[in-house]
RNA sequence: GCUGGGUUACUCAAGCGGUCAACGAGGGCAGACUGUAAAUCUGCUGCUUUCGGGCUACGGAGGUUCGAAUCCUUCACCCAGCA
C-alpha cells in the first residue's frame, strides 16, 4: 500500500481527500479556511482556468499556488470531464474530435477553439500543478459499445500525446526528477471490462506515475457501484497510486481506500454544504454518518453545535440555530461555515484507517 | 363633504361573466445533488375524500344571471385630488 507521495520535494501522506477548486477557489472559502478544515490538497480545472483567466495570466502570476496562496498539493484535472458534463448539456456548445475538444464562441459562434491534449498539458505546467492529468474522453454511462470503443481508443491516443507533451515540457523547463510534477492517466470504458482492461493495459505500456478511475457507475440505490470500482483497481499494479476521480460519499471513500485507492476528490461536501445538507456523526452510532438538513425549520431553535462530535471551526463556534438562520436569510457566510464543516468531515473520514470488509 | 382609485389565499400581486380553488413572485414544506456553467434544480402549498367528487373561499351584506373574484346596490376601511 502506498502511504505517501513525494512531489517537488514535498511529501503528502495518503490517502488524501482534495476538494474541488475548479476555477481556483473552493467556493466560498479562502486558504486559511481550507487549512483550518484540514485540507492538504485541492484539484483545479485546466479547461476552466485555460478559458479564464488563461495560460499567460497563470504564467505571469507564477502558477496557481502563488495565485491562491496555498502551498499544499495541487492536482489539475485535464478538462476531459467537461466534455461530458458541459457539451452534453448544451447542444452546439462544442464537440469532441480526435484532435481535441472543439468549442465555438462569439455572438454568432463564429470562433472555433480547439483544446488539444497538448494544450491541456501545457496549461497544467503553467498552473504549476503537482499532479498533471491526461486529457481523456469520458465514457458516458449510457454509451453503447461503439462509443465505448471510441472513448477508450481516444483516451489512449490522447494519453500518448499527453505523455509526449509532458516529456517535452520537462525538457523545456529543465526539470529534474525531484522538480517535476507527476503525470496520471485515466482509465475509461464504463463497465465494459474488455474495453476497460484494454485501456488500462495500453496506458500501463505508455507508463504513468498513477492511474485514475474514470467514469461513474452507480447502483440502484444511487451509491457508487463498489464491485465496479474494486474491479477497476485490479487493472493496475499496487505500485502505482490510484486516484478515484469525483468520488464519493464518506462511506464510499472508506470502502474505496480499502480497495486500493489513495486520492479522492468530490464536489459533494461543498455543494451539499451550500444546499444545507450536512454530514454529521450518527448520535445513535449505527451509521458512520447521517445527513442533517439545516434548511429544515426543526433547527430554528436548536442551540446544539451542528455536530457535537466535531471539532471544526463551525461546530466549535456556532449553533444549528444560528446556521439555520444564516441559511434562511441567504447570507454568504452560511456557505463558508457549512463548507468548512463538511470538508472537515470528509478530510477526517479519509484519514481514518480503512475499514476492511470481512 | 365631493370626485376618482383600491380591498384577491401566509405575503406581494394577476385576473374584470363560464375553461378559476384562481397566473406569477416570495415564503413554507418535501425531494434531489458524486473529476462543479449547481449559494442550484424538481415537486407540493384552502379543507376534505371511498380519488368520481364534495365543501368553503377573491373586504361585509344584499341583488342581477342558467352561471359572479369578475356586473349592480349598499356598508366598512385604505389611497389620491378637490373642498
Q: Can you give a write-up of this model?
A:
The protein has 358 residues and is an alpha/beta fold. It has two domains: 4-81 and 117-271, Queuine tRNA-ribosyltransferase-like (TIM Barrel, Alpha-Beta Barrel); 274-349, no CATH class. Helix content is 40%, strand content 18%. The chain contains 14 helices and 15 strands. α3 (55-61) runs parallel beside α6 (117-127), α11 (268-274) packs antiparallel against α14 (332-351) and α13 (320-328) crosses α14. Residues 354-358 have low confidence and may be disordered. The protein binds one RNA strand of 83 nucleotides through α5, α11 and α14.
Task: State the fourth-level CATH superfamily of the largest domain.
Answer: Queuine tRNA-ribosyltransferase-like
Detail the poorly predicted runs. 354-358
Can you identify the CATH class of the largest domain?
Answer: Alpha Beta
* Overall 3D shape: globular
Per CATH, the architecture of the largest domain is Alpha-Beta Barrel
* Strand order, sheet with most strands: 3-13-12-11-10-9-5-4
Radius of gyration: 21 Å
Which oligomeric state applies? single chain
Whole-number count of domains: 2
Structural class label: alpha/beta
Quickly describe the structure.
It contains 14 helices and 15 strands. With 358 residues, it is α/β, with parallel strands linked by helices.
Please specify the SSE layout and strand pairing.
Elements: E1 4-7, E2 10-13, E3 16-19, H1 31-36, E4 41-45, H2 46-51, H3 55-61, H4 64-68, E5 73-77, H5 80-87, E6 94-96, E7 101-105, E8 111-115, H6 117-127, E9 131-133, H7 145-172, E10 182-187, H8 193-206, E11 210-213, H9 226-233, E12 242-244, H10 250-258, E13 263-266, H11 268-274, E14 277-280, E15 290-293, H12 313-317, H13 320-328, H14 332-351
Parallel strand pairs: 3-13, 4-5, 5-9, 9-10, 10-11, 11-12, 12-13
Antiparallel strand pairs: 1-2, 6-7, 7-8, 14-15
Helix pairs in contact: 3-6, 6-7, 7-8, 10-14, 11-14, 13-14
The protein binds one RNA strand of 83 nucleotides through α5, α11 and α14.
Amino acid at each position: 500500500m502506498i502511504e505517501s507521495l513525494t512531489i517537488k520535494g514535498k511529501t503528502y501522506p495518503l490517502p488524501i481527500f482534495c476538494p474541488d477548486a475548479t476555477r481556483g477557489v473552493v467556493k466560498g472559502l479562502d486558504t486559511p479556511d481550507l487549512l483550518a478544515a484540514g485540507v492538504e490538497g485541492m484539484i483545479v480545472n485546466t479547461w476552466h482556468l485555460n478559458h479564464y483567466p488563461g495560460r499567460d495570466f497563470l504564467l505571469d502570476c507564477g502558477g496557481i499556488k502563488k495565485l491562491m496562496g496555498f502551498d499544499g498539493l495541487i492536482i489539475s484535472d485535464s478538462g476531459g470531464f467537461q466534455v461530458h458534463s458541459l457539451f452534453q448539456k448544451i447542444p452546439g456548445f462544442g464537440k469532441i474530435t480526435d484532435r481535441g475538444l472543439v468549442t465555438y464562441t462569439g455572438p454568432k459562434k463564429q470562433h472555433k477553439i480547439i483544446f488539444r491534449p497538448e494544450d491541456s498539458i501545457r496549461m497544467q505546467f503553467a498552473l504549476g500543478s503537482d499532479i498533471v492529468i491526461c486529457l481523456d474522453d469520458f465514457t458516458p454511462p449510457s454509451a453503447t459499445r461503439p462509443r465505448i470503443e471510441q472513448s477508450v481508443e481516444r483516451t489512449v491516443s490522447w494519453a500518448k500525446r499527453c505523455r509526449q507533451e509532458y516529456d517535452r515540457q520537462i525538457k523545456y523547463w529543465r526539470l529534474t526528477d525531484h522538480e517535476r510534477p507527476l503525470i496520471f492517466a485515466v482509465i475509461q470504458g464504463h463497465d465494459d471490462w474488455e474495453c476497460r482492461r484494454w485501456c488500462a493495459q495500453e496506458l500501463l505500456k505508455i507508463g504513468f506515475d498513477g492511474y485514475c478511475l474514470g467514469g461513474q457507475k452507480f447502483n440502484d440505490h444511487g451509491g457508487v457501484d463498489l464491485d465496479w470500482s474494486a474491479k477497476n483497481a485490479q487493472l493496475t499494479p499496487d505500485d502505482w497510486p490510484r486516484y478515484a476521480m469525483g468520488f464519493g460519499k464518506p462511506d464510499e471513500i472508506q470502502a474505496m481506500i480499502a480497495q486500493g485507492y489513495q486520492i479522492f476528490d468530490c464536489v459533494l461536501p461543498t455543494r451539499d454544504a451550500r444546499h444545507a445538507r450536512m454530514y454529521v456523526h450518527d448520535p445513535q452510532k449505527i451509521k458512520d454518518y447521517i445527513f442533517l438538513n439545516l434548511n429544515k425549520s426543526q433547527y430554528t431553535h436548536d442551540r446544539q453545535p451542528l455536530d457535537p462530535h466535531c471539532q471544526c471551526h463551525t461546530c466549535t463556534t456556532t449553533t444549528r440555530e444560528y446556521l439555520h438562520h444564516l441559511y434562511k436569510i441567504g447570507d454568504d457566510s452560511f456557505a463558508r461555515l457549512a463548507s468548512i464543516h463538511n470538508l472537515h468531515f470528509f478530510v477526517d473520514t479519509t484519514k481514518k484507517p480503512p475499514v476492511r470488509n470481512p
